[in-house]
Structure formats: C-alpha cells, structure tokens
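Task card 7
Instruction: Convert sequence to structure tokens.
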Amino acid sequence: MRFAMTALCGAALLAASPSHASTADTAPADIADLINKGSAKLALRYRYEGVDDDGFGEDAKASTLRTRLTLESGHYMNFSGLLEFDNISEIVADDFNAGAGNTPDRTEYPVVADPDGTEVNQMYVDYNGIDEVRLRLGRQRITFDNHRFIGNVGWRQNEQTYDAFSTYWQRDNIHVTYAYVDDVRRIFGEEVPAGREEQDNTHLINGRIDLADIGAITGYYYHIDSEDAVATSTSTFGARLSGSRPVDTMTVRYAVEFARQSDAGDNPASFDANYYLLDGGVIIDNFDIGLAWEVLQGNENVAGEAFSTPFATLHAFNGWADKFLGTPSEGLDDRFARAKATFGDFSAELAYHLFEGQDTGDDLGEEWDVSVGYQFHPRIRGDLKLAAFDGEDPRYSDTTKFWVMVSATLP
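Output:
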C-alpha cells in the first residue's frame, strides 16, 4: 500500500523531529516496555440466532462462538501497537446460510451473516508524539457518531474494520478525525471476495464541537470511492446536533441531522439524495421514551438513486429484522417509537417501526422489536432479543428473528 508507506515514513520523521518530540520523562526509556507494559485480553461471545422468514423453505438456526484475543503493547518513543485476532466457530447448530457465497450448500436457509473462520481483526501502530494528535496506521476500527454512516457492524460476530491511515486531533471541546481508507474488511470474512472491498480514493472526515448549552454539533464529509462495489461510490456531507437538557423532574433529549449525497467515482448512477433525522424523547427516572422519524430519499423510477449508507452499522437502524440493509429504490421513510428501562444491572427496550417508501408513500411493513439484558457480573452479560416484521410489499416477506447471547471477558 503506497499510502501506508508514505504515512509510516511521515510518522517516523515526526518522531525524530525535535520540534514535535515530547520530553524525555514522558517516554519509556527501555524498548522492553513495549512488552512489559502491554496487556492481553480474551473476550468470548456466544450467540444463537433463529430466523423464520416466509421467503425461505427452511428456518435458520445459527449457533456461533466468537473468541477474540487482543494484545496491546506498551509505549516506546511515543509508538505503541495493537494486534487482535478473531475466531468464529459453529457450535452444534449450523442450519443457516452465512451469506456472500460462504456456504453455497445452504442456500435454502435465510442468511445469518456469521461465517466461521479465523482472521486478524485489528493490527495497527499508533504514534502519540505530537501534542493533542494521534496518528494510526493499519487495520483498525473506525466509527463516527451513532454509526449511521461509518461503523464497525459490531453486532455481527465478524466485525467490520478498515485498512487505513487515520489521525485524531482534540483540543478542549473540539474533536476532528480524518481517515484515508485503502480496504474495508467486511463482515463476510476473508474466504469470499465480498469480505474485502478495495477502495480507490476514500476519505472520511468528521469534526465535533461539544457545547454545554446545546449539545454536540458535528459536521462530516465522507467520500467513498469503491473499486469492488462501484454502485456504493458516493460523496456525502452533513451536520448533526444531539444533546439533552434537564426540564423540571425529567431530561429532554434530542437529535437533528441532515445530509446530502451524490454519486462519486465510477458509480453508474447520477443522482442527489437527502437524509433527514428527527429524534426526541424524555428521560424520567429509569425510563427513556421517545419518537423518531428517519428519511432516506430515493427515486421510484430509477434504481441506484437512493441514499445509501454501505459502511454503517445497519443492524442498529430500521429494525432489528434487517429487512432494509439496502435502501429501497423508492427510498425509505421510517417512523418509530422506542422505550427503554434500566434498573441496576437489568435493561429492557421496546420499539415499533412503521415503514413506507419515501418517493411513493406505499406501505412497506411494520416491525416490533424487544430486548432484555442482564449484567450478571462485571465481566459476564446475557441478552435476549426478538424482532417481528410484518411485510406489506412482496419484496419484504414476514420475518421473525430471535437471539440468545452471552458475553464474557478475561481478565
């Protein structure tokens, strides 16, 4: 990677530069500290996912275990590093299609995108020798804001990470991140072409100002230029305001967002589309109750002209049944209500979504989502989730999904 070599040389030059070097008493004196002051962590996540989709002749039953080993070094001359391995194994129940050609002999089942295998999830080097700046080079997790545009798809067993050079700058209440992305390592794993998406000229810029009176104001520009999935090549710029304020005995929370997207790179479509979000609610004691309206514009008559978010953590949006991982050609209008409750180590959530085509107003379906979780121990957590989608359009079949998940970390 030419960009990687350039960035690495630049970091080395900065490390040697007297004008940017930190004082001697802030850096370890012995290179052995890279190991002696490092850390190792083991994380396990078991999940059973059942899918009853009327569009398939068989129900999916997926029982998988993710084992993650994370090795983090100490610091030497302002450099440090991280190496992280993931293994996903099928346990007992494997009646599911892992997607993207991973299991060509299981196409009668709905997709549960958790292919088995072992791979490097993260592997990067950090440089922290410049005041208020962090430079990072290698395979890394990149997330912005609520993950609506750029995320790590952390819900799936095989996480989405990025081969990239990134820099993060913070001064007081200002935060700015820039990333140049060379490859996106998708959730489908390294065994299939869809697991790696080469980028030609992808730049991600996100800046945030935290203001005590009104909340966080974020501006962003995401230029995606994909070599392997040219239809996802887009330029998106937007702004977001999110925050909360106490009002009498409750807290009012709010989020407002707008973005505009156009085609980029070799995208065969030529279009402009908008994104809107209005999200508000009240927090009273242990309860958070709110309403939201999210709109992704589209064009009923021309495929490929709908607002898309290909690198988002999509499971967190538009219903947990994942019926709208790709925006319909006519766009998507999602109006939803959500209620959360937290009592000590116990948490619960209930949500209702009503989906329509943005350009047509046609009813696409509705969905109920419910989850409960319990923190049994600081290092052990259990979760149950259910999603029930009732489709009103032939493209979107009735679907029920159920999850049982246990997560544990050591040490």
